[in-house]
């Protein structure tokens, strides 16, 4: 049955399973009750309980719904456009409903062009004070990863396009990085094989430490390329702020450009 936001008034946000949902045009708070359904989309009440993408004709009038059953809120896409969940997971109208975990879940409704419309979902857990209960708490620092000086320089050279925040960046090849490192560390005896060995050692160490992205080959699955694992490493180091744009200053002494060729040469 559809839920009207007015019914949520007075509901304690600390109740386990309580759903908080918010878009740029509205928000609601829904107690957990078997069979209760919250609908969201471009339409108006009573067709939907939460409006999203109200000026975007690519968003369906009823684009999705959340139904409480078996102790969980289950998300289903009912619109024509895809719904994107964290870690790149997509939902089509034919996709089976997925249960929300407790805590925060963002979902994005595909719209016109590059538009994506955010729906923020929060499911309260036991002893949870709700999504706004931590406003005065200290900000948690990002989890960064320890690198020695040589590793940092090597990763900055390989990942300089990531540190420039280019669209769809890719790492330099080991041979390109070796040519540039010769100018930075003339006595380092850098070559592609040595760089590959050092990168593999970093990947293995961070994999064992619980790095966010895959860094090692999974023998149970199709073997990914080393380039994809290096991409995962650089992406994770930049996202975690282990590597930051000022690290590019480590290359200030290098006469080489970003492709590893000496400055002034084609």
TrEMBL record:
Keyword flag Phosphoprotein: yes
Residue span, FHA domain: 38-90
Protein name in the entry: FHA domain-containing protein
Phylogenetic lineage: Bacteria, Bacillati, Actinomycetota, Actinomycetes, Kitasatosporales
PROSITE patterns: FHA_DOMAIN
Pfam families the record matches: FHA (PF00498)
Low complexity bias locations: 252-266
Keywords assigned by UniProt, alphabetized: Phosphoprotein
Protein source organism: Streptomyces fulvorobeus
Keyword Phosphoprotein tagged: yes
InterPro entries: FHA_dom, SMAD_FHA_dom_sf
Region (Disordered): 245-266
